[in-house]
Amino acid sequence: MSYLVDIFLIAITAALINNFVLYYFVGICPFIGVSRQVDMAVGMGAAVTFVMAIAVFLSWAITYFVLMPGALVTTWVGQFFVSPERAAHIDLTILTYIVYIFAIASSVQLVEMYVRKFYPPLYKSFGVFLPLITTNCAILFACLTVMSHIIGVENPGQIWDLGRALTLGVFGGLGFTIAIVIMAGIREELDMCDIPEPLKGAAITLIIGGILAMAFMGFTGVDNGIRVALGG
Amino acid sequence: MTWVTISLSAGTMFIMAVVLSYILGWASKKFYVEEDPRVVAINAALPGANCGGCGYVGCGEYAEAVALNDEAVTKCTVGGESCAQAVAQIMGVEIGESLPWRPVVHCSAHYDDRLKRFKYIGDMTCMAANLVTNVQGCTYGCLGFGDCARACNFDALHVVDGLATVDYEKCVGCGACAKVCPRNIVSLTPFKSERMLAVTCSNKDKGKDVTAVCNVGCIGCGACARMSNLFKMEGNLSTIDYDAYTPECTLDALKACEKCKRSQIVFVGKPTEKDLEKTKDLTAPELVEPDFKTSVDDTEWRG
User: Fold this and answer.
1) Residue B240 phi/psi, 5° resolution?
2) Distance between CA atoms of B23 and A107, rounded to whole angstroms?
3) In chain A, what residues touch B12 (CB-CB under 8 Å)?
4) Minimal Cα distance from B13: which residue of A?
5) From A92, A191, A192, residue closest to B12, measured CB to CB
6) For residue range B217-229, what is the model confidence (pLDDT) as tens digits?
7) Structure confidence by residue, pLDDT tens digits, A138-197
8) Chain A nearest CA to B28, separation (Å)
9) Cα separation of A205 and A32, whole Å?
């Protein structure tokens, strides 16, 4: 399969077929919490996309060069302590979660400071969302997805490179934006509706989330179709 | 081997910690944004209710606007005069006379007074009811579903027998009710005294159309405008020119009140001691009530 087709499939899968929010049900808190108005939802989606791309880039680099068995840096450092053959098998996979949280939190901090200094209007529009994103599980999930395509892959040729990882990050964020904006649009209309008393508020929101998720299930299998159509 | 893994893990974390804290420390100096000390001081002086009464999103935005964009220091309705004084001191400016702004509901029709009411089974909010016709005959007046009462953070607005009624004892004048009213019948008015004259009707239709839909609405006879310069006719609706208003109501204005066929020009605001005396036997707390009886005088008005 050519590289471009692969990238295209990763993008479609991350944004629509296996939408983070509506397929894996990660990042539900901002999905419910910040979907009252469309413009707020767009701001949140943009911030998540932005941070997700940066976090995926960082975690790819750390995983690829340090954490995976036989990674460049670890092997080089390890051979000073043990024989080179054994150094190639040093496995730091246990560190993934803590390192990703670490990387996400510090990159969010850095981005916040940078944006505040150089793009004050941008900071005004999504500055308040940035600290919220620090512990957003959708972003950690994107990092872990990238990890699962680096660590434990049997064929070294199938290990994801930076391009694939970044595609997942950016389009995963776009998928989140699509989901939250659709949700916000529906919830704005919902204000006009006569909702039965027990369903008001969070209950109807969760029900709508479920129906939306079922609608997105309609994309299932599209990736296989595309793969066949493009001669993969 | 185990020890190598453990020490490499520890080493990785340590190096990451050093590198990232160095980068963040460098960035916090490099990207330091100087904050105006006045903004911080003003923020501390404001009440922090974040009600949005000043027209800004929250107290922080208003503080920024005052310090950087020369916004007026008297905009905070919750803090009132003392707050304005404090802010003015920080900014080094003098403040003139600052008036408390309070909402006035420009409608006085209770359920019985409204004609042509139909059964409404939609969502019980004014916003939704305002989208459909025929909820009631009057397309200007209060709908009585209480969007304003729900918007009020200070428990100062209640729907009494279908009419939004302001509790001026509790009201701080944040204007949330005026913003949320879909019919725009709640307006913020400068209260030059505890009790203000107000025209409690918003119907701009001709007298005949008004009487068809309301028992109490302003019919636009113009008697008040003829009696006193305080009143202006806008279309078929009497309005009060609050710039010309003085706390000591001129005799003309009081005469106009008496003259009003529909008792639409009334005092609103905190009740005086005399009123409290008068109503102490009554159980219903009616803060907004017409003070003047209708004096039928057919010789003046030929509607």
Assistant:
1) -105, 130
2) 10
3) 66-67, 92, 95, 99
4) A99
5) A92
6) 888 888 888 877 7
7) 999 999 999 999 988 888 888 899 999 999 999 999 999 999 999 999 998 888 888 888
8) 7
9) 7
